[in-house]
Specification:
By secondary structure, this protein is α/β, with parallel strands linked by helices. It folds into two domains: about 120 residues, Rossmann fold; about 100 residues, Arc Repressor Mutant, subunit A, CATH 1.10.10. The protein is built from eight helices and twelve strands. Helix 4 links the parallel strand 4 and strand 5. Helix 4 runs parallel beside helix 8, helix 6 crosses helix 7 and helix 6 packs across helix 8.
Amino acid sequence: MPRVLLIEDDPSVREGVELGLRRRGHEVRTAETGEGGLEALREFHPELVLLDLMLPGMNGVQVCCRIRETSQLPIIMLTARGDDFDVVVGLEAGADDYIVKPARTEVIEARIRAVLRRHTDSTTRPGLELHGELAIDRAGLTVTKAGERVPLAPSELKLLLHLTASPERVFSRQQLLEYVWEHSYHADARLVDACVRRLRHKVEDPSGSPRYIQTVRGFGYRFGPL
């Protein structure tokens, strides 16, 4: 089972989540602060991070940014409020998903499995695809732009692979939520919109309008035209 690093300052939440995941076979390391979490990250080498947004000192968004400086490790944010503005900030910082506390162990486990599947998903057809300056290696799950490797988080990569598999096709936000994140949020498009903004920042020309990932007003997104 995947190794999980849990960074959570609330003792009752931390102990409950740790116990539930251990019972399901996960090896779990916990930390109470952002600084402690970054230290544990270097020592423990987890396969996924569960990260509380509201931490003392270095908060969850800051921790997420620090992790993203050097790693595309899957990150799931934990938040006490699903409509909290900090959720959007966390997603913009590079989190792959979020869970509203309190959450049952079965829900946390399902989200962990879904995020990790994105990290290794190669179900689309193999081969190298060229889209202008973008080269997408579906078999190797790598993306380069003008010959330079583009580091993508699991959700960003799966979103790009899904859009480029059907160029010109328009996907609604709900369709993308169900495919990329493998679960749906009632009328919640923040995961999709935040992921698209992060992806555009990495693959688009910052000086012009989006060339690759087009917004279809009132509906969703499509890849192209170039």
